[in-house]
Design a protein that fits this description.
Layout (H helix, E strand, L loop, with lengths): L4 E12 L2 E12 L3 E5 L6 H9 L6 E6 L8 H4 L2 E4 L11 H11 L5 H10 L13 H14 L4 E5 L7 H18 L2 E5 L3 H7 L2 E6 L2 E7 H7 E5 L10 E6 L2 E5 L13 E3 L2 H26 L1
Parallel strand pairs: 3-7, 3-8, 5-6, 6-7
Antiparallel strand pairs: 1-2, 1-4, 8-9, 10-12, 10-13, 11-12
Helix pairs in contact: 4-5, 5-6
Keywords: ATP-binding, Nucleotide-binding, Transport
Protein name: ABC-2 type transport system ATP-binding protein
Pfam family, one: ABC_tran
Length: 295
């Protein structure tokens, strides 16, 4: 029986020595979503994705992926495709060699899909991977991940180093693969344009904690921006961030009401994300200031 959740974390924590990468993270991501995981560098995005792939183990808390412990066995590994930030390929291997290796390692390998996608993006099977451009390597890595026919595709900022044209092609291929496979996907990116282009579910991760998560339309509908004096903020709403005469709020009472708050406006996805990132950064700065005073 297929579990309705592609990823389920409860109080998930990961520490590296004295540094905490994730703190008490609770997260439920339903199937069938293309999830945008956003946050500043060092927020814990890569750690969360590596935990989901079973590359590292949590310090405490629980995490299930597709209803099982990450990388529980070979069968579970085959259900997850992963493309890392540096889109790793073997420089001395040809494109065809990569496909042969993929077929050898994955019992559910779809050779026809792999060959078709390689041809569609113009890769020469005889070309050595070390001579491919960054965009071509990314396309090769994604084709290999997708040819496993996984239920979940995980991308850890795979387009970060690509030029705009190559990134556009990569994102187009991502959407095509997700649709063809009927898979779920999680895309970590610091480029909100990528998230707006392909994602229908958003997770904001800052300061090692989940700040907000949910379907993009629902988040945009439940957040608004109030222009002017923050004192005019309607009662019963949560203030996310206020700066330079603009206040981002969340809550039912935040819905536009021209009589109570004539300057209430919808937020963009960028404004929403930046509000949560700014709040997290402000909380960290305040806690460090308190610590300095206490010393």
């Amino acid at each position: 029986m297929r579990t309705p959740l592609v990823l389920h974390a409860e109080r998930l924590t990961k520490r590296y020595g004295r540094r905490t990468a994730l703190t008490d993270c609770d997260l439920k991501i339903p199937r069938g979503r293309v999830v945008g995981l956003v946050g500043p560098n060092g927020a814990g995005k890569s750690t969360l994705l590596q935990l989901a792939c079973g590359l590292i183990a949590p310090t405490s808390g629980t995490l299930s992926v597709l209803g099982s412990r990450p990388a529980a066995n070979a069968a579970h590994l085959a259900r997850v495709g992963f493309v890392a930030q540096d889109t790793p390929v073997y420089a001395s291997f040809s494109v065809a060699d990569h496909l042969k290796m993929g077929a050898w390692l994955n019992p559910s390998w779809d050779a026809a899909l792999a060959k078709r996608r390689i041809a569609e993006v113009g890769l020469d099977p005889a070309q050595k991977a070390g001579r491919l451009s960054g965009g071509q390597r990314a396309q090769l890595a994604m084709a290999i991940a997708a040819a496993k026919r996984p239920e979940l595709l995980i991308f850890d900022e795979p387009a970060a180093a690509l030029d705009p044209l190559a990134r556009k092609g990569f994102m187009r291929s991502l959407v095509e693969f997700v649709g063809e496979l009927g898979a779920s996907a999680v895309l970590s990116s610091h480029l909100l344009s990528d998230v707006e282009q392909v994602c229908d579910y958003l997770v904001v991760l800052c300061d090692s904690r989940i700040q907000v998560a949910g379907p993009v339309p629902d988040l945009l509908a439940s957040h608004h921006r109030i222009v002017g004096d923050p004192a005019r903020t309607p009662a019963g709403v949560e203030v996310i961030w206020a700066e330079h005469g603009h206040t981002v709020v969340r809550g039912e009472a935040a819905a536009p009401d021209r009589t109570a708050a004539p300057d209430t406006e919808p937020v963009t996805l960028e404004e929403l994300v930046l509000a949560y990132m700014s709040r997290a950064a402000g909380t960290v700065a305040a806690s460090r200031g308190d610590a300095a005073v206490s010393r």
